[in-house]
Write a structure and sequence with these properties.
This protein has 174 residues and is mainly alpha-helical. The chain has helices spanning 2-10, 15-27, 31-44, 49-61, 65-78, 83-94, 97-106, 111-138, 142-154, 158-171.
Amino acid sequence: MEALEEARKASPKDLNLLLNQAQMYITLEKMDKFGELMEEAVELDPTNPTLFFNLGVVNANEKKTAEAIKYYEKAIELKPDYADAYMNLAVAILSGEQAIVAEMNENLSNYKKYDELEKKQKNLYKKALPYLEKADNIKRSEDTVKSLLNIYDILEMTDKADVLRPIYKEMRGQ
């Protein structure tokens, strides 16, 4: 750690040294320091989509969803075929579902409130769906297909779900 800090003092604009130091903080599970260094890295290399993606991850892990979304969107702006950024953007959007489901569970006998919350939940799915579809189009994985199947089923998009079902089964070796 000391060697990296000394090297950074000697060469503060060296992006590779900065990224090595940031990686060290990940290993030490000091995400706050990692985030600070990623902010600094973005200043040194403002057109690097991976740096913005990493800032998205840091903010998502810290439950700063709005900031995470902003960083994922910037990564996508810089690299329109960044499948992982699309996937993480969808996941960040869907992170709001937990609070909705908790509230739904508290209102099981209040049908009007429950229906309102269910509509809110479906709107969240609709908001995340284009990003999931884009991630799947760029880089299909078991995760993208499973996530799309779940959302298609919930939104009653049977035709789209039926197309993916055999693909998912094949991916799972069934």
